[in-house]
Amino acid sequence: MAMRFSILGSGSAGNSALIRTDHTRVLLDAGFSAKRLAELLEGQGEQLERIDAIFLTHEHSDHAAALTGLARFPGIKVFANRATAEKAQAGLKHRVAWQHFETGGTFRYRDLEISSFAVPHDAQDPVGFLIAHGEDDQLAPRRSLAWLTDLGHAPQHVRERIREADVLVVEANHCPQMLEADTKRPWSTKQRISGRHGHLSNAAARELLEGVADARWRHVFFTHLSRDCNSPAAVAAACGTVLTARACGFSVVAPGGGTPFFDC
User: Fold this and answer.
1) Do residues 226 and 234 touch, judged by C-beta distance below 8 A?
2) Residues 158-196: pLDDT tens digits?
3) For position 199, what pLDDT does the model report?
4) pTM value?
5) Which of 56, 152, 246, 247 could disulfide-pair with 197, CB 3.0 to 4.6 Å?
6) From the CB of residue 173, how many other CB atoms can be counted at a distance below 10 Å?
7) What is the 8-class DSSP label of residue 29?
């Protein structure tokens, strides 16, 4: 089996994706209650008790909420850097099966190769992931997925890491005009969202795509859209032409939505 992945849910209410190979079932983030996560997995023909591991980008609840319910699933390993693990563990009553990695390093888990890289966000030590599978031959062609959510801007090292991916998952969180006009959020929250350690706007996502030359991307998924301050149409209008010009497919995941399985 090739490396397949499905976004289970995306947005301010929770974020998680499933990666499945012949030998591995892992989650990228787990930002829903364990009960809700189990329901989302069942919708893709999977079960939470069959998940081998979770790769955690940072400790915010919309990426780590399921940890509270993992006491019933002691076999699930949770991979995180030490700062993230310590912050997340402090709010839990049970001990998680932590597996620590160093930010910026690469490790293997079963038939996956996982590289982490630092991203600018207001968490302890947030990361993005580049996850590869296969040996780059005809029998098992090497494919890779970049998971890049929750960052206020994209430094050069981030651009270099995501260039290698066949599939890119990147946030396009808000439309600046819609955020400015929003009446639900106080000014301080708007400043946090739009700051350099907040979230990418549609324009910033477009600038990121334009700034990566010779990318290998075959498909880009735009995720983590704000329900109030963005829309799939606004993301497509801002970013679609960049990818169309490169003959790269793209999908915009609606707030709260997910995707069918996609072969990387």
Assistant:
1) no
2) 999 999 999 999 999 999 999 999 999 999 999 999 999
3) 98
4) 0.96
5) 152
6) 28
7) -
